[in-house]
Amino acid sequence: MLMSLAWNSLKSRKKSVILTFLSLVISISVLLSVEHIRLQAKESFNRTISDVDLIVGAPSGQLNLLLYSVFRMGSPTNNINFESYKVLKNNPHVEWAIPLSLGDSHHGFRVLGTNDQYFTHFKYGNKTALTFSHGEPFQSVFEAVIGADVAKQLNYKVGDEVVIAHGTGSTSFTHHDDSPFTISGVLNPTGTPVDKTVHVSLQAIEAIHLHPLHPTGQVKEHLAEEELIPDSVTAIMLGLKSKFAIFKLQREVNNNKNDKLMAILPGVALNELWQMMGTIENLLRIISILILISSLFGLSTMLLASMQQRQNEIAVLRVLGAGPHVIFSLVLIEALILVVLAIIAATGMISVTIGLLSDWLAAQFGLFLSANLLQVEVIQVYVVIVIASIVTSALPAYDAYKSALHSTLSAR
């Protein structure tokens, strides 16, 4: 009965109701989007690297090791012996090991020395493997695989030659001009630091640094295979046969007496790094909450403004036997109808938008967003919105209650 009355009352005030409804949809969409993207971005951030159990490097702090090995930011304080890589690779608990060697760059993009295990076992997102848009992994010493951003920004394609520079800056005065690399493959976009990386083999890193020792033009035939075995690497990514062995192997690595090593769990390190960005996260939430509050006050204002116009409606209801409490409830129900419909509309709009843009967001920004908003945290936001709407609608509802009460007293 009350629902029908409330709905008909809203329909009688279409213009103001539609404007208030649109305002609520926009504000609720902003709040839900911020909350959903915040949650999903955290998950996406934590999935910058996936299915890697341990990252091993020189002792330099958990975050520093994570930054230079995964995000290609900063530089290691020291390298680790190549023998340590071979020992870890042959450890009975280790299923695969990916060596990483950093230090050079190409037009500001980091150059990463690694091996074929990188393209086989490195994963991101929801255990998504690397794939090629063109070409294939490097097969020889002077071949390179480039990320999607490198190819796009520098307009490179398979078969082009690139010259690596010493150091990590965008400008370098030392270029390995006599050892150009031929691009053998271009990776599909991942939304991770892989997109901004030039990948070469470990042997290539050795070759370009040994090259000055040899006459120009004789690099490939002069350098023997054993000369290209590196003395050290920057870091090692490990995948273990059993998750139960993670902490055991971590202790073994950290207590290694032959080389100073540190092993970290990438998931733990990523979570710690995300917490450092908590201020920005909270600021976004505060802004969206303020937008919602302003819209709820708009709803309250609309209901208050309508009270003067609804004196006749309230009088008719009183004649039909509706008490002040019924009038109070009627106004609250009107507010709840608007808010619930706005929540449904906002949720649908966000879900459709994310569904249409999910692939693009994943490729461009590394945001792996789910179109499903029905998560515990988002449902809690729904509850908060409903409670806030009841609170802000209490004033016009009380005004209607007083008006009905006054008409009752006057009748007496």
Please state the oligomeric state of the protein chains shown.
single chain
Tell me how many strands there are.
Answer: 15
Radius of gyration: 31 Å
The shape, in one word, is elongated
Largest sheet: 11 strands, mixed
- Percentage beta strand: 15-25%
Number of helices: 14
Uncertain spans:
212-222, 408-412
The helix/strand class is alpha+beta
Structurally, the number of domains stands at: 2
Outline the fold blueprint.
Layout: H1 2-11, H2 14-46, E1 54-57, H3 62-69, E2 80-81, H4 82-89, E3 94-106, E4 109-114, H5 116-121, E5 123-124, E6 128-129, E7 132-135, E8 143-146, H6 148-154, E9 161-162, E10 165-166, E11 181-187, E12 197-201, H7 202-210, H8 219-222, E13 232-233, E14 235-240, H9 246-254, E15 262-264, H10 266-275, H11 278-309, H12 311-319, H13 324-365, H14 376-411
Parallel strand pairs: 4-12, 8-11
Antiparallel strand pairs: 1-14, 1-15, 2-13, 3-4, 3-10, 3-14, 5-6, 7-11, 8-12, 9-11
